[in-house]
Structure prediction request, 178 residues.
Amino acid sequence: MTALARSYLNVAELDALAPLWLTSIDERISVLNAASDADKAVALREATADIDALAYVGRRVDADQPLQFPRSDDAGNLIADGVELELPDGIAAWSVASIPADIRIATAIQACRVLMRGRAFDPARMQADQLAAGMTSMGGGGSTVTGDPHRAGRAWSRIDPNAQTYLRRLRRVGAEVV
Prediction:
């Protein structure tokens, strides 16, 4: 991993991975396909920051590495998910080595969610995002909103539900962050 690595994927890897894990009719894929490479790069950095805001099992392999992964267990063994993610067509090697497949998949899905935030105003999608971020009720045509600030402030609430599926096994819950 280079000292400048700020994302678990590059744009080519995002373009190759996202369609493998999201259906072709998913609006996140439409937004991904319409986005510029510059927007995708920004989304990847934000998605990685969202994922890195969580606590994970093990500890960073190198205390100075900029990202949460790669990680090792207490015995110094690299934490991997046991399944090496096959390189997608057109990708010769991963841009960041030794990253669990679940982190790569979650990063692609989360980057698509980040790109969705920049889409045209969609009241139904906005309400769904607000519910995920801690809103507990809405009434009066949207004029009254009740929220749960504790839930909204958690890093986990920013993660796409599909990406959460891939991150659950690696998360550390209720312990110090290392």
In short: Helices lie at 11-21, 27-34, 37-52, 101-117, 123-132, 149-152, 161-167. The longest strand covers residues 135-139. Strands lie at 59-60, 71-72, 135-139, 144-147. Residues 11 and 41 are 6 Å apart (CA to CA).
